[in-house]
Amino acid sequence: MPSFGFFFIFSYTMSMASITKKMTYEQIMNLKKRIEPLAVSIKQPAYTHYQIQTPSLTITAYESGKVVYQGKDVSFLEEDNLPQNHSSALYPQAGSDEVGTGDYFGPVVVAACIVYEEHVDTLKKLEIQDSKQMNDENIRKIAPIIQKLCPNSVLIVNNMRYNCIHERLNMNAIKAKLHNQSYLNLIKKGFSLPDLCVVDQFTPKPLYYNYLKDEPEVIRTLTFETKAENKYLAVACASVLARDSFLRYFDKMNEKYAFEFSRGAGPAVDQCGKRFVEKYGFDALKHVAKLHFKNTEKIRNLRS
Fold first, then answer.
1. Of 46, 84, 233, 296, whose CB count within 10 A is highest?
2. What is the C-alpha separation between 243 and 194, in angstroms, rounded?
3. Residue 256 phi/psi, 5° resolution?
4. d(Cα 301, Cα 274) in Å, to the nearest integer?
């Protein structure tokens, strides 16, 4: 995980560690968003943006930009132990990524795949990158090639299932379980995981594994990096596979309901939801949308 700041201060006691980092306001707010699901308490002492306490960690974000982490496990903040000569060039490598988590309509999809060195040149010629930076036509064309060359696992959680699960698990918990299962599926298919398995990081490492504490099988040899799709070919390939599956699912939704669903979660989606409800009724949303999004209430208000 790359450093967010410019300096580190380490001080260890017998069981506690403390790390101080310098962060921008945007990074401080993004950190809050990631940590809040596990918060035991959230306070705002003087001269701070917030102080969040979890069962194993206390984070204090000061207005100066200084962020102090205190707890038993702050190892996720330390520099990666991977070689610094571009670890993304190490093969074989596996990677995983998810799509659909920011879309009101449609499923959540997580994919994982393994890239072997003999396929790197072929894959690089396809100019694969983060699927958010590729157009749909290119994704649909490239995905079958990746599927043919790379062992892969794609998990799709439809909206009905997602809404049921979300009643007891938050979005990050759901993603953690899907990423873990995608790697387990590769093993169950008979493939050995490489030493380098990269997750496009959506939550700090300790929180990721906390979400998996009740799982019978957990892959614990993972590397967590933000923006990993543009650093690791395997993550980029997984991103394309996930997006392709999301697009094909979206196609089926459009066909089933004879309706053109909108992507994302902005105002256009609210209007799209209003039209859908007028055609199929409010209860039908649970089959096509993530109901906990604020869009649901906005759609309800648009109808009143």
1. 233
2. 23
3. -60, -40
4. 9
